[in-house]
Amino acid sequence: MTCLKTTNWKVERAIDHFFAAGYPAAKTSINEKAGKALFDKYADKESKTIDIEGIQQISADLGFETSDIRILILAWKCECAEQGIITQAEFMKGLVALKLLILHNFSATTVDKIAAALTELNEKMGTLSEMKELYHYTFTFAKAEKGHKNLETPVAVAYWQLILGDGKVPWLDSWIEFLDECNRRVISKDTWNLLLDFCISVKPDFSNYDPEGE
Predict the structure, then answer these.
(1) How do residues 45-57 score in pLDDT, each as one tens digit?
(2) I need a surface site. Which of 13, 108, 174, 193 has the fewest CB within 10 A?
(3) Full set of structural domains in the chain with CATH
(4) The whole model's pTM is what?
(5) How many whole angstroms separate alpha carbon 32 and alpha carbon 21?
């Protein structure tokens, strides 16, 4: 009815206006107010961002350790540009990506819904191939500074253990020992990406590995 009145009761124009305005989804599906209220609960009052202390608090409220892979998944879905900082825009983007703000009963107190969504997403990424997007995101996210081309080896190792550990890659410890023996100080993006490709294409027992690459 509103669309018809706006377009002087011209049906075709009313239909165009309906979809252009996003009725009814644009006005009812995104609970932006609740999302911002939740952000404000954890954000630093001066920086207007969720800093390390805020991340520690939200992790505790979610029931996760800060080293839990589900916190990394949250950063990935928020498309966080750097470690230890979540801006309001990033936080809102993450809630939308997790399909939480479309819930009419989502409120600033329902962190359990975030925990459930992150847990479900983690469980869905059952194979290394399904974790590829998260893995590639992590390299850029984990760099100490945006201008750096490489990851410091201890940082790379920590994230390898987080993403590829728990038996996903049986020889991961041997790879880490090899890097230590070689005194490898940094890990390039090529090395980071090729390791996952190797993990996906080569069986854990190396039975299909061709050292000649043929």
Answers:
(1) 999 999 999 999 9
(2) 174
(3) 31-124 (1.10.238.10), 129-201 (1.10.238.200)
(4) 0.81
(5) 17
